[in-house]
Amino acid sequence: MKPLVDPFGRAITYLRVSVTDRCDLRCIYCMKERMRFLPRDELLTLEELDRIAAAFVARGVRRLRFTGGEPLVRRGFIDLLHAVSRHLRNGALDEMLVTTNGVQLQAFAEPLARAGIKRINVSLDSLDHATFARISRRDRLNEVLAGIDAAKAAGLKVKINTVALKHDNAHEITDLIQWAHARGFDMTLIETMPMGEIDADRTSQFHSLAKVREDLSAFWTLTDLPDRTGGPARYVRVEETGGRLGFITPLTHNFCEGCSRVRLTCTGKLYLCLGQEANADLRTPLRECADDGPLQAAIEAAIMRRPKGHDFRIERLARPASERHMSVTGG
Ligand code: SAM
Ligand code: SF4
Predict the structure, then answer these.
(1) Residue 326 Cα to ligand 1 middle (Å)
(2) Distances (CA, A) of 87 to 26, 189, 325
(3) Ligand with minimal distance to 27 CA
(4) Residue 137, class by beta-carbon neighbours within 10 Å (0-12 exposed, 13-18 middle, 19+ buried)?
(5) Closest Cα to atom 8, ligand 2: which residue?
(6) Residue 326 CB less than 6 A away from ligand 1
(7) What is the gyration radius of the CA atoms in the chain, in angstroms?
């Protein structure tokens, strides 16, 4: 089948799949304390998720990242991975990845490895119990740390994701980087993005990574690395720790020209750009017909409407640029 290429010549090789909007944490930048989650019948079933993934793999997607919400709270998630791993075995897919908050990783590390996962991203915003509990609104740091140990023991390559928050963890960023690099983990810092209604004020939490980089450069040597992932991260090597450090700065850096990724929500909406509302409903063509013809046509038509770039602006941080939560779209 013809590979997917958008009107700007960008090949679509990376799909993020949100398998649920539910979560066992309530991070302040991501959710409200009281979330109204989607009714279950709106969610794609595991079979439907598998079918959509296969449709994209057939059109040239080489990497699939499963995310959420929290993917490990979706019942049957490991079965889904086992099913999708057939594309790894036949060479159509290079990699399946998972992004998790780590809370349930102690139990799931081995099953993830057995299902064909080699690398995971674990979100960790603080190593301090009180700070972790304040940011995630849940006192579950011990479980996350035990989960990270279990992932390492299961042979999974771990990358730590940390959202930089001015008032909560900015002072801890150096410690977090040292902690991660000492364990052989890559680390990526993320700027807060204006997605979805939350209880907190985002402008007061925004912490510029340009400033973080400048601060780190005062005592560390940061060497730019050419590594690109087809996404918004730029990487450096911290010479003193020997570890890799990524910066995801959607508000201060335009990363769109090489963007190869699209995102599927757990209800079957395909978002063509993280920062734009442009989306397409894939659930209807999927449910309408057992044959993949209408689904493929809907995917093709969506990709042809892909916008050139995102529309995040720092001055608009106070109001969400996007109605949807990251937990629905998949971070
Ligand atoms: N629950 C999993 C987790 O936390 O890793 C997977 C989903 S979460 C939405 C994926 C990533 O998005 C996490 O690293 C999280 O910190 C990040 N994230 C969520 N909301 C964000 C926001 N408004 N701005 C920036 N990053 C955000
Ligand atoms: Fe849950 Fe991840 Fe959102 Fe935190 S960032 S509330 S762990 S989905």
Answers:
(1) 6
(2) 34, 31, 30
(3) 2
(4) middle
(5) 69
(6) yes
(7) 19
If pLDDT is split at 50, 70 and 90, which confidence band does 98 have? Answer: very high
Alpha-carbon distance of 315 to 319, in angstroms, equals 9
What domains are there in the chain, each with its CATH number? 14-329 (3.20.20.70)
Are 244 and 185 a contacting pair, CB within 8 Å?
A: no
pTM for this predicted structure: 0.93
Q: Is 120 exposed, middle or buried (0-12, 13-18, 19+ CB in 10 A)?
A: buried
Q: Ligand 2 centroid to 223 CA: how many Å?
A: 31
Residue 329 confidence (pLDDT) = 62
- Name the band, by pLDDT with cuts 50, 70 and 90, for residue 325: low
CA angle at 162 for the pair 11 and 157, rounded to the nearest 5°: 65
**pLDDT tens by residue, 171-188:** 999 999 999 999 999 999
Overall size of the chain counted in residues: 331
